[in-house]
Backbone:
């Protein structure tokens, strides 16, 4: 399964999703069943490595961001990726509008994989504090645990 995380800048949330899920699938022994990538709806940071605050917060929890560079969504992404994960409702609406009708079902709200959080949006931490980056990580870890559970189930029933 090919999984794409989408946020605004591909600078904070979606690179963190990519890093967290990559590690969690490796730990779960599912690394060879998925490819993981991320992108943004806007080009503010195209070509740049992830935000240093996001990177440092993630690295403190053991996640790696090596090689990541911001890019924007491409129309080919709707063909390349089976699961396209929107970090918040704005991204979800935008992705649903951009998706060809036959691919709309591939677009999902990321936190729907973590119903226990009681949230549907991973808030934008860009103008926030260090605590906001920790909340971003908490929510992304919860969502990624849900994705790993789904991948495990899928493998068990394949
Ligand atoms: P992200 O955060 O969508 O989680 O990458 C943002 C990064 C940059 C901007 C907005 C959100 N910006 O306006 O530059």
Residues:
């Amino acid at each position: 399964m090919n999984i794409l995380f989408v946020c605004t800048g591909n600078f904070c949330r979606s690179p963190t999703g990519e890093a967290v899920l990559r590690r969690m699938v490796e730990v779960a022994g599912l690394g060879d069943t998925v490819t993981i990538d991320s992108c943004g709806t806007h080009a503010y940071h195209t070509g740049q490595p992830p935000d240093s605050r996001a990177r440092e917060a993630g690295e403190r929890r053991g996640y790696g961001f090596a090689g990541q560079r911001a890019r924007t969504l491409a129309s080919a992404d709707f063909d390349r990726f089976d699961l396209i994960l929107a970090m918040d409702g704005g991204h979800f609406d935008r992705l649903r509008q951009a998706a060809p009708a036959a691919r709309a079902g591939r677009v999902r709200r990321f936190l729907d994989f973590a119903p226990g959080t009681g949230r549907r949006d991973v808030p934008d931490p860009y103008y926030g504090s260090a605590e906001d980056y920790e909340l971003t990580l908490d929510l992304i870890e919860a969502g990624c645990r849900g994705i790993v559970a789904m991948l495990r189930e899928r493998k068990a029933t394949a």
Observations:
- The helical segments are 13-27, 52-60, 77-80, 89-98, 130-156.
- Residues 7-13, 40, 44, 124, 126 surround 4-nitrophenyl phosphate (CB under 6 Å).
- The radius of gyration is 14 Å.
